[in-house]
TrEMBL record:
Biological source species: Priestia megaterium (strain WSH-002) (Bacillus megaterium)
Name of the molecule in the record: Nitrilase/cyanide hydratase and apolipoprotein N-acyltransferase
InterPro entries per the UniProt record, alphabetical: C-N_Hydrolase, C-N_Hydrolase_sf
UniProt keywords, alphabetically: Acyltransferase, Lipoprotein, Transferase
Residue span(s) of domain CN hydrolase: 1-168
Transmembrane recorded as keyword: no
PROSITE patterns: CN_HYDROLASE
GO molecular function, one term: acyltransferase activity
Family in the record: Belongs to the carbon-nitrogen hydrolase superfamily. NIT1/NIT2 family.
Domain of life where this protein originates: Bacteria
UniProt keyword DNA-binding present: no
Pfam families the UniProt entry points to: CN_hydrolase
Amino acid sequence: MNIIAGSVSNKRNENIYNTAFAVSKTGELLYQKDKIHLVPMLDEHHYLTGGDEVPEVFEINGIKASQIICYDLRFPEITRYPASQGAKIVFYVAQWTTKNIDHWKALLKARAIENGVYVIACNSVGNVNHKDHVGNTYAGHSMVIDPNGNIIEEGGDQEETITAEIHIQKVTE
């Protein structure tokens, strides 16, 4: 099984980054990417360093893909670059809250439509453990969206696994 995961605190050169990664079924690290835009409302700049490289494309099972972290979803150019490099799937790993669930859904659909790619997005569920957001919860609603913006599969607000069949040839239509 291939693993598309994220994100983890990753200390390098005295800085801490929010890093997502992809691992092949043989255990090979296929990709690792630091979150670029830090969330101002969470004061992430006090404890994280933003990445400075655009998302690259990697291959998983012979299909070009890329991976983007959480708040970077709000910046269309972050998804545009890997799509322009041939990515057919863009994976998002995130911790969006119930206060922003409508944004989560709208932005994911927009990124799929704008770039003509499949979007596969995983969002946390459960209580937020941050002093400025006590009482808020992670929204869940992980989903798979086709290049036309149609939601193929969507999870709810509880922990679960969703599966979906995608037709990669739709990306080139």
